[in-house]
Specification:
Length: 157
């Protein structure tokens, strides 16, 4: 079992949480709420209101999320779900548990994004139905021809 830190739609009471509970995808066991040790920009963007954790350490906020211990099958499912390594990039980063212990967890970051994403509002905690008024659009409601690949994006780095 490997620890993965989720910060967006995979959290409890969020639109994609059910993927972690579907045993066909593998096993995911909730461990704890947690917060990243480092600051990152967590933004909501695209016409689908997707939360993105930008790979830009030191900018933004410490991010609140949840840790799940997942098996190999669930890791493979999440890698496919997050389109790792072609879109999101899974890497380890330190997160702090409520008891102040620090552990390294897998986190899905967006490494390549438009520089304009850094001008968006930064959040420390994602909620699809938050006061921001940007509800997440689930995949089954999206245009099937829109693959969310952004080859014309100019990376900020």
């Amino acid at each position: 079992m490997e620890p993965v830190f989720v910060y967006g739609t995979l959290k409890q009471n969020q639109p994609n949480y059910y993927h972690l509970n579907d045993t066909k995808n593998g096993c995911a066991v909730f461990r704890s709420a947690a917060v990243t040790v480092n600051k990152y920009p967590l933004v909501i963007s695209t016409k689908y209101n997707i939360p993105f954790l930008l790979q830009n350490e030191g900018t933004g906020h410490e991010i609140r999320g949840e840790i799940y211990d997942i098996d190999t099958k669930m890791m493979e499912y999440l890698d496919d779900f997050e389109n790792h390594p072609n879109f999101y990039k899974r890497q380890k980063a330190p997160v702090k548990l409520p008891n102040a212990d620090i552990i390294d967890c897998w986190i899905y970051f967006l490494p390549n994004y438009p520089a304009s994403f850094l001008d968006l509002q930064y959040f420390d905690n994602y909620n699809s139905s938050g006061e921001h008024g940007l509800p997440y659009v689930t995949r089954y409601l999206r245009d099937p021809d829109d693959k969310l690949s952004f080859p014309n994006w100019k990376s900020s780095s």
